[in-house]
Amino acid sequence: MGLKSNLHNFREKNKDKKWLPAFSAIHTFLFLPNETTHNGTHIKAADDLKRTMNTVILAMIPCLLFGMYNAGYQHHLAFGEIQQATGGFFSSEFWTLDNFMVGFWKVIPLVIVSYGVGLAIEIFFAMKNKHEVEEGYLVTGMLVPLIVPIDTPLWMLAVAVAFGVVIGKEVFGGTGMNILNPALTIRAFLFFAYPTWMSGDKVWVQGAVERDQMIAAGENLDAVSGETILGSLAQGKDFVYDVWDMFYGLIPGSVGETSVLLILLAGLFLIFTKIGSWRIMLSSVIGALVMGLIFNGVVSSGWISESSKFYSLMNTEFWHHLLIGGFAFGTVFMATDPVTASQTNKGKWIYGFLVGFISIMIRVFNPAYPEGVMLAILLMNVFAPTIDHYVVQGNVKKRMKRLKVKTA
Amino acid sequence: MGLLSKKDAALIKDPLADNNPITIQVLGICSALAITAELEASIVMSISVLFVLGVGNVVISLMRNIIPSKIRIIVQLIVVATLVIIVDLVLKAFAYELSKTLSVFVGLIITNCIIMGRFEAFALGNGPWRSFLDGIGNALGYAVILIIVGFFRELLGSGTLLGIPVLGDPIEKTGLYAFGYENNGFMLLSPMALIVVGIIIWVQRTRNKDLVED
């Protein structure tokens, strides 16, 4: 008798206890459950819900690790402690232990708070409603630390996670029933509740806010700041990063969203393992490019004056939009969420296209919300069932017609 | 209650909880969203509705036998409009700042579904005394929700209650703010009012399963 079957027996013995769902949650998190179906037809599939979730988490790990290095790098750079890494992504000046440790000590608490609060709420609802704890939070819990600024206070994250899980998911019936992507609900809550911590030029560099407080307290220090590219553009300012910086991700931004290279690899991995929908990813890239081209066209046709506040964002080369902000991350990890996206193949094309299209539109026209991707995906989450409905109805109509022709 | 018979008392008590106009009938949501960012505005709005609905119900009830049913909606509108103008003028005269905060929403009491709903459903078919009680009861039910929502939105959104800071000073960093607490700006936006009302509905229906619709 190994530990695994001991635990299983323990579970059988305590079947009626109130805390059992909490135990099973941890049990099935660590081990494959021992249960088998006893009657009916059996279909053996390797990818259950947990496998799916784990694959996505696996795809996010490189982004998380890179986010730690980058957080340290941006911190040291802004504080003038190191020079810009000349070799960029491939230079050893970037991948230093010093950089990593700064990020590590900031990101790990975010991960712990996100998982701790989220799973506690999931377990509470599972015990209350007497069902098994679902694995739905595994991905959300990892997404959340990747899409917030590095200096987000932990209690804010905890409040937002509680709100996101309860209002975004549990009220609709838990995992698989939610209308909105929970991770984005959490981020949107943070964004609207505590805007000073979610945008501006301080929050993206670890320690910048603290430094400001020290200056305010009368210490003689230089203020540090690091504006994101979108933030600079929205204010009509120039930024210092070149295209390769954007692609490799050596720029300020939310923890895991900066490196387009790693997100691209993760996207390919998800497509290869058939977890993420390539239709959504591709169509949202197309949507973003189309919107970007329209704006570029508006600029080159001279319809908009250079003094307009939209000018510098509209004038951004259309394909740069794919590299800056959270577009890549949102497209690969959030727009493809199988619960909240469209289910039909044709629907996925429409859904993805509109996600990309609206992202860039919000980005350009509403500099108060520098990240359009979050709002675009949430908006399209709401419309996904409608899109599916019309796709299915269209198919029904087409087939009805065919039927009539045959019988007539 | 010695003053009221059991049946009459129910007219006041029912709308407070199990037949609440906002959480059960889901009427009058617009104003609940619009003016509950501050507790003071919620209270003034509640009093205004209390006056309009209480008096309006009596007036309609007194006229119920002479109103031709074809034009009853117009007659009802005239009664509400008259009462609302009185409220509006009183507010402008005695609480100008507040009337500016409430802006059009005082005027929009005219379109508050609760009022027209009570006229139609109750005052047209009952005597003045019972109509008065019904109006007061429903307005109180409306007020309870408005005040709960206003309380939480102002407390969490601005850290004040009735304009008085209760959680410390956010600029001087005293009280709770010294520990890094910050006001929740989302609470001041209308969607949050909807969510707070939703949570009240959730709690209410969890406690009383009879209220759950299929």
How many domains would you count in the coordinates of chain B?
Answer: 1
Let me know the number of strands of chain A.
Answer: 0
- What percent strand of chain A? under 5%
Largest sheet of chain A: none
Fraction of residues in helix of chain B: 55-70%
What is the succession of H and E elements of chain B? HHHHHHHHEEH
3D shape of chain A: globular
Roughly how many Å apart are the termini of chain A? 69 Å
Order of helices and strands of chain A: HHHHHHHHHHHHHHHHH
The number of distinct helices of chain A, counting runs of at least 4 residues, comes to: 17
**Would you identify the regions of chain B where 5 or more consecutive residues have pLDDT less than 50?**
none
Stretches with pLDDT under 50, minimum 5 residues of chain A: none
Q: Give a short account of the largest sheet of chain B.
A: 2 strands, antiparallel
Number of domains of chain A: 2
What structural class do you assign from the helix and strand content of chain B? mainly alpha
List keywords for this structure.
heterodimer; A: 408 residues; mainly alpha; 2 domains; 0% strand; B: 214 residues; two-stranded antiparallel sheet; 9 helices; 61% helix
Explain what this protein looks like in three dimensions.
- The complex is a heterodimer of chains A (408) and B (214).
- Chain A is globular.
- Chain A has helices at residues 3-13, 20-30, 49-78, 97-129, 137-146, 154-168, 182-193, 195-198, 208-216, 229-234, 243-248, 260-272, 278-300, 311-314, 327-334, 345-365, 372-407.
- Chain A has 408 residues and is mostly helical.
- Chain A has 2 domains: 49-261, no CATH class; 276-408, no CATH class.
- Chain B has one domain.
- Chain B has helices at residues 6-13, 29-34, 39-63, 72-94, 96-102, 104-107, 113-121, 128-158, 190-207; strands at 160-161, 164-165.
- Chain B has a two-stranded antiparallel ribbon with strand order 1-2.
- In chain B, α1 packs parallel to α8, α3 (39-63) runs antiparallel to α4 (72-94) and α4 (72-94) crosses α7 (113-121).
